[in-house]
Specification:
Chain lengths: 358, 258
């Protein structure tokens, strides 16, 4: 066991709590940096996609896991980011400008949508964001002069400092950098008054208000940040798929994002990463084992969405803290070794309350 | 000196007059208690002052300034803090985080500097922590500092909520049934804290309370309500022996209530 003796306030707000953190995160950084030297092109591409989904996952985690708001329209924000990035690139704007512009523009869209819809909550908000998602999807289809409609849109090759980023490895490193940036600002935000205001809104709106927190302002702000991060992910996603079609950004993708935050574990940035790994790697796993499954299960249509649904239900029922909760338990087991007790592993009943006191 | 004034304040929900032309004023540095049977409109008055409800008519004045239509989220910045009858803490945050949320109205850092965690944010955070730590020491909550609220017993949560209100550094503190759900010992402790808050911190307190022993222990003045109307106002003794109050609230004759 490690005991932290805190003698200074700044130990409370430090990004790394102790040297163990520095060591393990340092090791992780080295590993992900040298991964392309070890792994093949296909795996690097998939890992890059995990990072892209993790960026969107972190964005949605701030909204769902920390602020207690739901969105079933985040695929639309991914689409907006993707199209803004691709269209600007096609007009000759350099990638290092289109990427942040895609993020900022999507954040503005998020704020514009958030302002009216965030008066709602729970199911109503879910329906409103769902409607927003399908409206944006229709715009992608019909606004053919910009998006190319169902003919699709070939995404131009991006250049970073004059180097063409056209390989899976290139996208991998760019996605990694953006993910690191997004994680860093999210961690900073959660340490700050705004991050605490988010948690306050999630746990009790009435008392958040009495603490001087302007509900509409913070909800809109978080919705904008969340959309912005998803927009950044979208810009990278465009390069991952290389060819944009409007039906890629449908409600199933939004549900996948929601799966990321629930399976990962509400209220944890690490959960967003773990959830993204799960959501990207499960289809790959299904593809590998599909032919070996008995009774022809592998040939059933809709196997993948049903499995996602099943896992989502099972996680909510039996592991409300998600993969992050599992990770913490495993860690505790090793820390306490060999003194594990059944009681320390009993399931915690913790729910993010957002439906109380209206 | 008069610090807070409610001037002929009323609120109606449909046909019900929950608060009906209530006027009272609270002097600087006193503990002012509001008593009354269930449904008398006590908590409604608190919700009016913290601007969760809009009053139908009347005026609210704090330190000479009217705030009848000030948004709820700006009340804390005026220097008015409150607690809730059924505890409205943030259960999935630690005690320290809860207290720091109480510091929110003192936060002046910009959003972009928060994202980058600039030195200005760092310094502000350190200052907030110092204040929160003062409150933790004042209320003796050290051992629970890093516990999740959801894991704390009810009695402790009640104290934490008081602490969160103190982190606002209020001039006026609204306590909604500070003793509800507490045992005799804890109620006594709460009474001492209220006295300390009044004497040591110089904070004016308005308290809604059912426990007459606590009311007698700490109150300078008491107002009795029934059906949204003021029945009596004065010292705890005066109010408790007031015939109207005895009939409406204490249930019985004057002799039996004394």
């Amino acid at each position: 066991m490690r005991y932290l003796f805190r003698t200074q306030y700044r130990q409370d707000i430090a990004l790394w709590r102790h040297n163990g953190d520095r060591f393990w995160y340092g090791l992780l950084t080295v590993l992900v940096l040298i991964a392309p030297l070890v792994l093949g092109e296909f795996y690097i591409g998939e890992l890059g996609a995990v990072y892209i989904f993790a960026i969107a996952g972190v964005g949605l985690m701030l909204l769902v896991g920390y602020t207690g708001l739901i969105s079933l329209g985040h695929a639309a924000f991914l689409g907006i980011g993707a199209y803004v990035n691709a269209v600007l690139l096609a007009r000759g704007v350099p990638f290092l400008i289109t990427l942040p512009v895609a993020g900022l523009f999507t954040a503005l869209c998020g704020a514009a949508i958030g302002r009216p819809t965030l008066r709602m909550s729970g199911l109503y908000l879910a329906i409103a964001t769902l409607a927003f998602g399908s409206i944006v999807g229709t715009v992608f289809q019909k606004w053919t002069s910009v998006t190319g409609g169902f003919d699709g849109f070939a995404v131009p090759t991006p250049y970073v400092f004059g180097i063409a980023v056209d390989s899976a490895t290139g996208i991998y490193y760019v996605s990694l950098a953006v993910l690191a940036f997004v994680m860093w600002i999210s961690a900073n935000l959660l340490h700050s008054p705004t991050g605490r205001a988010m948690v306050a809104i999630r746990d009790s709106e009435v008392s958040a208000q009495s603490m001087g927190i302007h509900l509409a302002r913070y909800k809109t702000l978080v919705f904008a940040i969340s959309a912005g991060m998803t927009g950044l992910a979208g810009a990278l996603f465009a390069h991952y798929v290389r060819f944009l079609a409007p039906d890629a950004f449908d409600v199933l993708l939004s549900v996948q994002f929601v799966t990321i935050v629930f399976v990962g574990g509400l209220g944890s940035l690490r959960g967003a990463i773990l959830g993204a790994m799960f959501v990207r790697l499960l289809p790959q796993f299904i593809a590998i084992v599909r032919d070996d499954l008995p009774f022809g299960i592998g040939r059933l249509p809709g196997l993948e969405p049903s499995l996602f649904g099943l896992v989502l239900v099972l996680v909510i029922l039996f592991q409300p803290d998600g993969l992050n909760g599992m990770w913490l338990k495993i860690k505790r087991w090793f820390q306490a070794f060999p003194f594990k007790r059944q009681a320390s592993f009993r399931r915690q009943k913790a729910y993010a309350k957002s439906e109380r006191l209206r | 000196m008069i610090m807070f004034q409610a001037d002929d304040i009323s609120v109606r929900f449909g046909g019900i007059r929950a608060v009906d032309s209530v006027s009272f004023d609270v002097r600087q540095g006193e503990v002012f208690s509001i008593i009354g049977p269930n449904g008398a409109g006590k908590t409604t008055i608190f919700n009016l002052i913290s601007r969760i409800y809009n009053s139908t008519s009347g005026k609210l004045i704090f330190e000479g300034k009217e705030f009848t239509r000030t948004p709820a989220s700006q009340i804390a910045a005026l220097g008015i803090a409150r607690t809730f009858q059924n505890i409205e803490l943030f259960p999935n945050a630690t005690l320290l985080q809860n207290l720091l949320i109480g510091r929110h109205c003192h936060s002046r850092v910009g959003f972009i500097s928060e994202l980058l965690f600039l030195p200005s944010v760092r310094n502000a955070e350190l200052r907030h922590r110092e204040k929160a730590e003062d409150v933790i020491a004042f209320l003796g909550l050290e051992r629970y500092r890093d516990s999740l609220i959801a894991n704390l017993p009810y009695g402790v949560r009640k104290v934490v909520e008081l602490g969160r209100a103190l982190c606002i550094e209020p001039k006026l503190l609204l306590l909604d049934e500070p003793s509800s759900g507490l045992n005799v010992e804890e109620t006594e402790g709460m009474g001492f804290w209220i006295e300390d808050i009044k004497k040591d911190l110089g904070i004016t307190v308005i308290m809604v309370e059912h426990d007459m022993a606590l009311v007698n222990q700490v109150s300078d003045r008491v107002m009795a309500l029934n059906y949204g109307k003021v029945l009596a106002m004065g010292t705890p003794q005066e109010v408790q022996t007031h015939p109207e109050v005895v009939r409406a609230y204490l249930g019985g004759e004057v002799e039996s209530a004394a």
